[in-house]
Prior knowledge:
75% of the residues lie in helices and 3% in strands. The chain has 456 residues and is an all-alpha fold.
Amino acid sequence: MSRRSLQTIAFAVALTVPWIAIWLATDALPAVGLEGAAPSVVANLSTLGTVAISGVSILGAAFLLAWAAETAEKDVPRAFAIAVLAVLAVAPEYAVDALYAWNAGQFAGTERGIEAGNLAVANMTGANRILIGLGWSGIALFTVFRSKASVDPTVVNRDGFLSDAVTVDRDIGLEIIFLLVATLWAFLVPLNGGIDALDMAVLVGLYVAYIGIVLRGDVDPSEAHTGVPAYLQSFPKPLRIATVVSLFAFSGLVIFVAVEPFAHGLEELGTDVGIPAFFMIQWIAPLASESPELIVVAYLVNKARSTAGFNALISSKLNQWTLLIGTLVVVYSLALGQYGTLAFDQKQAAEIWLTAAQSFFAVALLINFEITAREAIALLVLFTSQVLIEFAIIREFVALPISSYETLLVYSGVYILLGLALFVHRRREFQRLVRRTAGTISSAVSKRDTPHHADD
Length: 456
């Protein structure tokens, strides 16, 4: 077991080595005055080569990240381990979006600054919609499909067309409620003409409160792990903790330094075949930066840990929908040299409303703690059809009676109507969810005085 696990870890690390070597030769070493002579292969690396090598390194780092999170569950509450996993897995998205927000502040008042502010919002909304439209739906369908070949206790088989469902851990109710609150607030963000300090206080405050609650949860090491996590969990506690921290740090570094060239490389490949740059920044770059998260979740599902996989997806959506939006104004103000509101145009306001509407519908789907194959397909079809229609309008492939802006509003209305119908239909489940979450919060708060209080 130990030899095989070590070989597996070594293979994952080996996947990251080529890009780390390139990064050291071209970025890190010159920054400290050790540039030397960069290998000729670096100078002559094609765009396709950059995408391939950096993409493989992201794959290796994603596996290291997943193993670290699973191992950490022995020493910290599972929800907290998954929250750390989610933050690190989507850290590249923060980096890309922060770059646009910084440029918006640095060039404030100019055409370049205005465009950068719009790109920051476009990239953020694209990332959030991809996470649900492709992430939630794709992983749900993959889980159902995989259950045909291997028994998965999280999949409920029912009679009827596409009625098989993936059940979600009821302990994720806390995340669902916090996500709902953040979503409702997001509808208000465009009304002030930009992302401001109040948005930051509310959204970042929500995530801080969420982390404070999950940290008070109980450690539950009872779930049996296999493979690399089982091997790492056998280490003595000091060595185990050091290993987990090292894996988190190393995989986070690899993802951070690889995802930008990976995303930009994909952008270049896209523009070479005629895809508009703005469209690439909103969709292809976020898709690239979300790839570590999707790889990690697919890995967990493939290990029949669908519950942990969906928990990671929901936690990722929560931190992107709170931290990512809330911190953009901080980055913008630092670049500006004073406090300022990160402004955006009418089109990006509609993008935020559409993203909030999709999130509202997705939360409504999870009220009963499951998502059917039919619901997953609905998420996927709504997402892909909107993107394709907008692309067709931008490229003038079709002449539609409505504009791109109006298309966003129409889809927002569809999501909201579907979400409201589900909330009404599942109102009793929603009431139970609220009561359960209130009990979770109350229990977490009471542990300050009664640390051994048992959960209901």
